[in-house]
Amino acid sequence: MKHENSARFARQLDKADPLKAYRSKFHIPKINGKRSHYFTGNSLGLQPKTTNSYIQDELKDWAQLGVEGHLHGKRPWLYYHHFTKKALAAIVGAKPIEVVAMHQLTVNLHLMMISFYQPTPTRYKIIMEAGAFPSDQYAVETQIKFHGFDPGEALIELEPRAGEHALRTEDILAAIHQHKDQLALVLFSGVQYYTGQFFDIRSITQAGHQAGAYVGFDLAHAVGNVPLQLHRDQVDFAVWCSYKYLNSGPGSVAGAFVHEKHAHKSNLPRLAGWWGHNEKERFLMQKGFKPIPGIDGWQLSNFPVLAGAPHLASLEIFQEAGMKVLRKKSLLLTGYLEFLLKEIDPVENHFTILTPADPKQRGCQLSLFFHRNGKRIFQALTKAGVIGDWREPNVIRVAPVPLYNSFMDVYSFASVLQKALR
After folding, report:
1. What is the pairing mode between strands 155-158 and 125-129?
2. Is 163 exposed, middle or buried, given 0-12, 13-18 or 19+ CB atoms closer than 10 A?
3. Can you give the pTM of this predicted structure?
4. Looking at the DSSP assignment, which residues form a beta bridge with residue 34?
5. 84, 162, 232, 235 - which has most CB atoms within 10 Å?
6. If the chain, 422 residues long, is cut into consecutive pieces of 10 residues, what is the mean pLDDT of each piece?
């Protein structure tokens, strides 16, 4: 498609957009009384308009039924985690037995590492990308120390080549092969939060397994954003939050995946809680933990219903729209943003796009590194009605989300940026 830098062209794209009606399903914040241009769904997704009714359903059942809501509510609380499985499985390319909504992302990562990071004196190293999100760094560091190893020795952090901003898949695979005899775990982001790079999950997983290691992914910036096939790709485990692209509210319930090949391994080391115990025997209150087959066996506590209600509201929208259609629009939307940015600054005098140019290696995020005055430009954007995301030292992350961002949003952002640069 040949792009044009014009409002007329952006409106034409919006008119042809099969997802254009979904924008009206979300509350879009206002700045100074005017609807904002919201580009930070990679940090906190917008609220679906159905969220309130979903929460009110649970509050009504709580008021009218009390504890009986566990069995007789509109959506019985006892089985609440089951209601998310179909949608989550479709979003991450999994089977229902492999996915569950539970806890928070970092809690889930620790739970997964208890099971899948079992170092020995000779096989104890972890490979991950340098500059991973801090909670991943802290979790890995403390897990290594917990097992009595030195992070300086056990942790291998991979950086891009000099002068480059993204990791090359070939370099990741080479590092895995290089350390294969000492490697216990390969742990990467699905999409790198800072650069927006979408890693080659399938190739990394295959290389990790060939090296004799487990392979896991933090999908915080990938779930609901990019196409995933966790079951097909044989990923051992994955974790994610639901408040970014999944639009489930600040701090909402997170999620996790464990491949079906591990579903019946009751001898896998794990931290146990009663909600992961055999459902038929859970209320017998007896000793002896018997994990539910599949990922459900990693649950610790009963489901947070009031946090889960917004999650259901958003997942219903994903089921309607479908990830294939969302991805198709995402490619167009982000591609149009990239075109406009290059029109504004063709020789990178003001900023450099850190995110890979190959659409297959990114989701709906472009990270702009400003060579000077980045914070002032960000403040000017905010004042002009753009809600973006600032990351030190000089990066503005821009995420045109296909569910609720329009091509006119993208065009307007580029126009405001151009004025701010002047």
Report:
1. parallel
2. exposed
3. 0.96
4. 31
5. 235
6. 93 97 97 93 98 98 98 96 97 98 98 98 98 96 98 97 97 98 98 98 98 98 98 98 98 97 94 94 92 97 96 98 98 98 96 97 97 95 95 96 98 96 90
Q: Which long-range contacts (C-beta less than 8 Å, at least 24 apart) are formed by 67-76? A: 75/312
Report the distance separating Cα 337 and Cα 412, nearest Å: 10
- For the 7-47+322-421 domain, the top CATH level (class) is alpha beta
7-47+322-421 against 55-319: fold identical: no
- In 3D space, the residue among 155, 217, 211 whose CA is nearest the CA of residue 189 turns out to be 217
Choose the CATH number for 55-319 among 3.40.50.1820, 1.10.10.10, 3.40.640.10, 3.30.365.10.
3.40.640.10
